[in-house]
Design goal:
The chain has about 120 residues and is mainly alpha-helical. The chain is built from 5 helices and no strands. It has a domain of about 50 residues. About 0% of the residues are buried. One of its GO terms (cellular component) is mitochondrial outer membrane.
């Protein structure tokens, strides 16, 4: 192994490349100029809750719309559809019990589609 002497120009440049040069300290007036160049924000804007209250109002409006959708459209449709299914089922059970008549739905897909169409027709 060979040892590197300090007189070698290669070792001096390698050693100096890892040295970070001193950065001169800036004066306080330079720092003040940097701060002055920043946009000023008043504390009243930071303290106001207008953004959060707007978001809250939008959230409440969205909830109200969902509630109206549920109560005005979805629940009546579901009630009519399920009510008709229950009515047909209970009517079939009554006819089988009281009059000894067998009720069979030959095509359940058409029966369900007709029930959905009837329930949606008057909405």
């Amino acid at each position: 192994m060979s040892s590197i002497s300090s007189s070698d120009p290669m070792s001096a440049s390698a050693a100096s490349s890892f040295v970070i040069p001193d950065i001169p300290r800036s004066s306080s007036s330079d720092r003040d100029d940097d701060v002055d160049s920043l946009p000023s924000i008043s504390s009243s804007i930071l303290d106001s809750e207008s953004d959060s209250s707007d978001a809250q109002e939008e959230w409440e409006a969205s909830l109200e719309q969902l509630q109206l959708l549920l109560t005005m459209i979805i629940m009546p449709f579901a009630g009519k559809f399920l009510g008709r299914k229950f009515a047909y089922w209970s009517w079939a059970r009554y006819m089988e019990w009281m009059h000894n008549v067998e009720i069979r739905w030959t095509n359940k897909a058409v029966f369900n589609a007709a029930g959905a169409a009837e329930a949606a027709a008057s909405l």
